[in-house]
Every structure is written in C-alpha cells, then in structure tokens.
Inverse folding.
DNA sequence: TGCAATACCGCAACCGATTGCAGCAGGAAA
DNA sequence: TTTCCTGCTGCAATCGGTTGCGGTATTGCA
C-alpha cells in the first residue's frame, strides 16, 4: 500500500541499500544516482518509515515527556518549549499525563522506555526509590526535582521566595501563611524550606497549611482555613491555589491587596488577568523545557561521559509584583 | 544490553515464538509453559520492544495529535482528554505543536504518518487542499473543522453564539463588535456567520474587527480599535482576546460589565478568575478530545466501513454568564 | 599500456518482535 | 496395537530500513 524503499529501488533499477544511502547519506553515492533516486522518491511520494529505521538503528528519534497534569497552566509552557526544541532537531515527542498519580509514573516510563531515546520527567511525584527505577530505564532528565544520579533542571525557588518574603515584610506583614503543595512534591519541599528560611531571617512568623492539590478548588478551601488566624499575607504553592484563595476571600468581602496580600508561584498567564492581578514568583518554564532537551541530547550524544557527575542546570526565579500585595492592614 | 524476547527464550530453553505467544496470546501455549515464561520475563525485567512489535504487526499503538499552540489554554484540556482516553486503551500519544503555522501542519503530519496508527488534527489552519493531503496520509480525525471526507468532531458555535447575542440584546445592546480570529480558522468562520445570523435575527448591528491572533496581546490591540465607535458590547473570537480587551479597557478607565460588556469563547479556566469574571461561551473541550479518539478507533477497528459517509460528532455550546456583561449604558 | 587505487554499488545479515505452517508427541478411539 | 487427531512448539519468513564487507568498474598515475 505505501511506498517503501524497495519500491523506489525497483523503480530506479537499484538496490535498497543504494537508495537508502542516497537518501540519508548522499555523499556515499554518485551524483547521478543521488539525483535519480531523490527524484523518484519525490515522485512516488516516498515517506521513510521511522519505525523500521528505529529498529535497525537503535535510535527512535523520539523523546518521552511525562507530566503530572497537562491542564495545570504550569506545564503547557514547558511542554511547548520541549516540543519546539525537539522539532528543530527532527525529534518527536511522546507525551504522557499521569493525572497527578505518582504510581503511574513508573508504568508510563516503562512502556515508553523502548520507544524513545530518552525521557524527560517533569515534577515527578514518585518517592525516591521509584524515581531511581525510572532513571535506570534509560537516559532521563528530571525537571523540577533533584535526582543526584541523573541530569536535572532545577528551579531555584529560594531567590524568588526570599524576594517575596522581603516584599511582604517590607509592607509590614508579620504573620505569613504558606499554603503547601503535594507532600511528595520536591518543589514543595524546596519552597517550604526556602520560605521558612526567609521568614526566619526576616523575623516574620510563618504558619503552614496543607498539603493542597495544585488546583483552584484547593485554594478555595484553603481560604476558609485562614479565617481568624490573624494572618495578613499568604504565599501559595502555586498560582492556582493563590487564585482560589483570592476568589474565595473576595467572595467573603475581603479586599485582596488591602485587607490581605496574596503571592502565587509560577507567574502563569493567569496572574496577569486575575483581579487584582496576582503578585507571583516568576518561574522560567520555557527555559526549563529547553534546557531539559539540551541536557538529554548531551547524554544521548555522549557529550556527557558516562562517569561524569550528573549535570545540573539551575534556573533563577524572581518576584513579579502586581496588585494582590499591599501594606499590611494597621491594627 | 536490554533484555529481549530471545533472551527470555534462552533462559527458558524455548523458542522466541513460544515466548511471544506465552506473553501476548496466553491460550496458545500450555499452562506450564505460560507460567514458566511469565515468571522468567518478570524476573529478567523483560519489557517488550514496541518498535519491533510495530514493525511486524503494522500497528504502532500510537496516535498523533497536532495542535496549533499548546500554550493557548483552549488546547490543554483537549490534549489531556485525548491522552487519558488513549492511556486507557494502551495507546501512546505523539504530540506536535505547529506554533499557529499552517504550513507546518502537513510536514508534521507527514513525518508522523508512518509512526502512528492515526492522526488527530485540532483546529487545522491549512487551506482545504492541504487538509485533504493530510487526510490522505492515513486515518485522520479533525477536531474543530469540518472536513467532508474525514471523520470530524465539531463544536457547534451557533447555539452558544445565539445565546450570547440574545443575552446582549436583552441587556439593551444594539451595536455589537465581533473580534475575528485567524482568517484561515474554520471555527472563526463558523463563529462569524453564527454571530452575524444571530445579530440579524435580533436586529442588532454587527461590526467586525480583525483578524486577530488568539493571544492576549491581540486583544489589547483590539481594545483600542473599539474606542469611539459607539460599540457597547464585544464578542471575541476566544477568551484570550477577550481578556486582552478587558485588561486594556480597564486600564483606560472603562468599567467592564457597566460601560462595556465583553463575551469570550472557550470558557477556559481563565474566565473564572479574571476580573470581572468573564461571560463566555462554554466549549466542551474534554468531550471533543474523547470523541476524537473514539472516532479514530472506530476507523482503525473498521467499525466504520470504508465507504460509509465520514462520521460527524457535533458538540453543543452554551453561554455561561458571569460578571463581564451587564446592561447597556443608557444615553 | 599496465597496475593500483578509488569510487560506487549490491549482497546479506541484522534490529526484535509476530505468525503461518509444519513437525512432533501424547492421548483417545477403534 | 494401530491410527488419527489434537495440542503444543519450533522453524523460518516477514515488517522496512541500515550497514559492514566484498566485488566491479572506473580513474589516476607511471
């Protein structure tokens, strides 16, 4: 049904090998042959079968990308960046969404492993041991989680977190809440310790709530917990939770940015359109995606020697101040 | 390096064929053998090579998904739904983003074609001829575009559009702007004609602007065009444009929902957190994704006979009224 | 003109699984 | 005891490319 290499070869009166070379390694054949083959291939509408090629070459030209939740606005920019970077290098992207279900991560990684040249795991929720198993399946890059034995792209929350706390304390806030993300989440742990350190340094009192799922509804729930605690400022694990908090508090008559200040993390497009606009810690998602692909390609091309220490890319975050933060209410 | 079927076979003192059958068609071998093979496979950590399987079976167990822009909040829910549906059927998803570049669609489809069992094209921007070429590459389902010769999942804007216009005219608006999306976009054409029809029916005046890219910035630009036109209500091609309009107008001191009403389309999560919350036409993205996969599987399993008319799934839309629309300003 | 070097091309094995067909052994029936 | 059948397993071809190796024709140089 579909045109194969052999078909093209027959049409040209050549062998499949020659046609293969003419198409993928043009210098190996004479100019005349090359010309003839390429014309025939074009005319016949030949499309190389990547599956067959993969099998014989041992390289699939595909990378796997596993994320917890495509619908969370934090991930699309990463996915997009990975995609774009790959497209430029003639790579395809196999995407999987684990639905925030950590147990699925290993399964997905396993079924993918023989189908891809490498894997990019974003914000894996699995416990360390299972993450190790994933890494053992093949070349793997982790984003938003530090895995000592594998290349990782990290998002350095501490800077942004410190900026956020400085910003809030400068505005007079003394009691600050941190709304924690999923317990397993590496980035949550990062953020927790960072905010704790920053608060200690600034002599502000930190109260932690959670864990919460990274969803608007969780933020709505969180808002009610804050009631009557004397807290004047909130830092949420991510923008979704922050938005939920804002929505619920507004509903209850609190003025965001006046009666209470809210800080999100991710600086997703949402933060610019919310009301009031959300002060958020900017996370360079696109850069993270791009860096992950580059790291993976380094491993695949063996730029990274086997026994080198696993490379680490650390990306900075910074606070973007918008309307949701303001002076602490007096009295 | 990695354990193959043959390795398992040797360990068991069997042939590869038997092992293959024991694993994928257990009834074909004796109970004892089945047991022995399965245990060995488990112990050795055997993971079947899907690439090899694809080659010999002629089925890859993968479907391709091509979208214009992953970062546009309209698409992630679709991608997610497709993903979820596929995961349940042991299918993988190959994702490509054309960056709103219609010329890339055919390219991507072509390179994917030999690597997937079928293709789902969401909102293709290509001209009809090229869309036809894509469909000719293999089983293809189109979402958000009607392609007569191929299965399609359509989102019926007319209902939602009519509801929107009725809503606005009931509120007293007589001059309504439509901010058009990409010229090539099938859904834009749908929406244009739907809104025009609804306005004619309701005797409201319709003024069209655009085309605009489906991005917030385009909405910001659009807002300024509306100035001094006497328009009191705006229906935008999508939520992003609507949000841009709102943001810019608020900035210029207009009160959204009072001085001017804004309606978006997609009902993305954004609309709930914007200020004011955005009245939007709800589009069942998840259902569209799921339906697309089902349609594709029907074709692949030949539930759909070759010469049947191409199946069509039509999904309804409806207006969700929020804070961005209100009575037309008097005078 | 002769010989060696070189440029091209084809043969065949291979990647890892699937599957039609044939062979073998064991049990059942006569 | 013989025969036939059935159930299980192995052989070998196949999917569509890639690639090392060897052969042939051509070229270059003396």
């Amino acid at each position: 049904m579909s045109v194969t290499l052999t078909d093209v070869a027959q049409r040209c009166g050549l062998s499949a090998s020659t046609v293969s070379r003419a198409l993928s390694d043009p210098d190996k054949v004479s100019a005349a042959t090359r010309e003839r083959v390429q014309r025939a291939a074009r005319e016949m509408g030949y499309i190389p079968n990547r599956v067959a090629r993969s099998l014989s070459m041992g390289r699939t030209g595909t990378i796997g990308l596993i994320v917890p939740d495509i619908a969370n606005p934090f991930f699309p920019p990463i996915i997009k960046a990975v995609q774009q970077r790959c497209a430029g290098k003639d790579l395809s992207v196999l995407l999987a969404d684990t639905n925030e279900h950590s147990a699925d991560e290993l399964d997905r990684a396993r079924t993918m492993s023989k189908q891809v040249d490498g894997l990019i795991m974003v914000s894996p929720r699995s416990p360390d041991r299972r993450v190790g198993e994933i890494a053992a399946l093949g070349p793997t890059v982790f984003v938003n989680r530090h895995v000592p034995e594998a290349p990782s792209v990290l998002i350095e929350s501490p800077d942004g977190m410190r900026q956020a706390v400085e910003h809030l304390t400068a505005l007079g806030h003394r009691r600050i809440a941190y709304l924690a993300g999923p317990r397993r989440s590496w980035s949550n742990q990062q953020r927790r310790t960072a905010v704790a350190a920053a608060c200690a340094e600034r002599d502000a009192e930190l109260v932690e709530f959670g864990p919460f799922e990274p969803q608007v509804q969780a933020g709505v729930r969180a808002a009610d917990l804050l009631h009557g605690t004397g807290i004047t400022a909130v830092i949420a694990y991510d923008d979704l939770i922050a938005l939920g908090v804002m929505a619920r508090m507004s509903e209850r008559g609190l003025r965001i940015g006046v009666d209470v200040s809210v800080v999100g993390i991710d600086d997703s497009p949402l933060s610019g359109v919310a009301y009031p606009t959300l002060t958020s810690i900017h996370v360079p998602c696109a850069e993270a995606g791009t860096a992950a692909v580059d790291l993976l390609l380094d491993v695949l091309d063996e730029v990274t020697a086997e026994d080198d220490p696993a490379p680490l890319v650390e990306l900075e975050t910074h606070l973007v101040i918008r309307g949701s933060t303001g002076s602490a209410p007096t009295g």
Remarks:
- The domain at 5-48 of chain B is CATH 1.10.260 (434 Repressor (Amino-terminal Domain)).
